[in-house]
Structures are given as C-alpha cells and as structure tokens.
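Section 5.1 Outputs to date
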Amino acid sequence: MTLFQLIMLGSSAFFAYKIYEHIQTLQKPEENSQGGNRKAEAFSTFDSSELIEKADDEVRAGNMDKALAIFSEANIKEPKNGETLFKMGFVMALQKRNDEALEYFKEALEVDNENPFTHLEMGLVYIDDGEISSARTHLNRALEIDPNLEKAKIALEKLNSEH
C-alpha cells in the first residue's frame, strides 16, 4: 500500500470508530410536549476542551492528519474558538499548507486579535511565502503584545538583516 492509501485507511477507520461511538450514545427521542429542539451532537461525547487535549497529544506524536480531524470536531462542537482555530492553522503551517493556515489564523484573529502567538505564526508563514511586508507587520504586532516573545525577535532580526 502507498502512504496515501495508509493515511486514507487510518482516517476511514478513525471516523468509522467515531460514528460507532456516536451511535452507541444515541437514545430514543422522547416526545416533548413543548416542541423543544434537541441539540445536535457532534461525533463524540467529549467536549471541545477534551478534544483539543486529544488533538494536542496527536500533534506531539506527529499524527498531524489525525490531530486536524480532532480539531475539526472540536471546531464543530464549539465554533469560533480562537484556540482551536489557531491550532488548526498551526498544524497546517507545519504541513506547509500555508494558504489554509493563513485562513485559520485570520479567523483566530477575528476572535482574539490580541493573541501574540497567532501574529507570530502568521508572520512565519508570510516569511515562508516571501511576503516580507506582511511578515514584518505580524511579527511587530506580536512583539507589541508580548515584548518578551523571543521567537518573534529572532525572526524579525533575521528578516531585517536579509531584507
């Protein structure tokens, strides 16, 4: 099997397990005399913070695709969570999926424009893409928010010495 086929097999197995897990938690709908709606649940019984922790473990283990799947589920359970959006962008940046990473970072900034790490990572992605002006803007913003952010200082110094 090729690497792609193995990844697809693993992803399919993961989602099949999640569907099985979800089906096991289903209950017979009860009649509601007031006509209230039941809240739709995502794939698992975990809340978004537990999912984020699981995804972080997968990132540390090097399982980026599995981490993204779990982050996606967390994003479904709690949309517009700045931490989830940032981490999805971070994982995509690690995979050199820069355009997608920037989209998630931008969404994260809409939620929390004062996160220095989002600005830092955006700056690093822009450096990778050769967009020096945008990189400077975000690295400087990261340092405005957190003047002790060493990684931003180093990246900005290197950027200024090269350009």
